[in-house]
Amino acid sequence: MTATQDRPAQADEMRTMTLIQAVTEAMREELARDDRVVVFGEDVGARGGVFLATAGLQAEFGPRRVFDTPLSEASVVGAAVGMAVRGLRPIAEIQFADYMGPGFDQIISQAAKIRYRSGGQFTAPLIIRTPSGGGVKGGHHHSQSPESYFTHTPGLKVVMPSTPYDAKGLLKAAIRGEDPVIYFEPKRLYRAAKGEVPSHDYIVKIGEGAVRREGTDLTLVGYGGVMPDVERAAAALAAEGVSVEVIDLRSLVPWDRELVLSSVQKTGRAVLVSEAPRISNFMGEVAYVIQEQAFDSLLAPVGQVAGFDTPYPYVQDKVYLPGPNRITAACVKALNY
Description:
Layout: E1 14-18, H1 19-33, E2 37-41, H2 57-61, E3 66-68, H3 73-85, E4 89-93, H4 104-111, H5 114-117, E5 127-132, H6 147-151, E6 157-159, H7 164-176, E7 181-186, E8 194-198, E9 210-213, E10 218-222, H8 227-239, E11 244-248, E12 251-253, H9 257-267, E13 270-277, H10 283-293, E14 303-307, H11 317-320, H12 324-335
Parallel strand pairs: 2-3, 2-4, 4-5, 5-7, 6-7, 10-11, 10-13, 13-14
Antiparallel strand pairs: 1-8, 6-12, 9-11
Cofactor: thiamine diphosphate
InterPro entries: THDP-binding, Transketo_C/PFOR_II, Transketolase-like_Pyr-bd, Transketolase_C
Enzyme class: oxidoreductase
């Protein structure tokens, strides 16, 4: 558990980067550090991916380490599983999270099960990187947030950073781990999220959340693309005299129960924010754990702000996404309960 923003001490080593630059740098450093690391997917080679996350990597490390694949997500994930079982450290890119369907069986039936099925003789330390979420007017085939499918699958780790520092540190931790990791990248923050990243090597431990803002009246919990709006809502409430604690989960499986519970036990109120549809939303699990383990501390029902249970709308994405107004309204409701 961590109660800070994990800022390293060496301020003279810090650079300002975007989230996508941090992702690229993590891959570049790990390709250089470990010759078992390979990067592949649709258009990731010469073009550098549709969002240019892998730009320049093929030129630097060659087509045997960074290469394009056919337009087949099942083949991409299947190849990653085979490589991982044979000792490589594959980083497979799925062009959009919406396209993970064809590789779903390979993920949940093979990658997630191989350690248990083999009695620990084999592991599949692979990373599936994929741009996720809305906010860029991509429509219903390029804007979904399918993380709950994978948080429901034992054997997988699932992460979603919201800052450049976390993006780099979590990706490095995933590459160096022994488990399959689904690494969601909130595409609307690729170039919008900027922050300080150290030049020295570091990791962010998977499973640890971060307190972005300390408070005493209410706990706001989010992850990924919603975090800027969560922090805007907290700032608006602070201007009215409400002290809001903001927690960024960063990691969904495992998630930092201790951090969330300790905060809710302090504040007595919780509002949970994500952009995935409300039904079977991962935050429902967080809400259940809060009421199960911190019920006596609650001063109001746990609130949840999420996307709507509809296909993602192309022209009304700002209405669909949880913005500061919807988040603030849910907080006011909890405060007035």
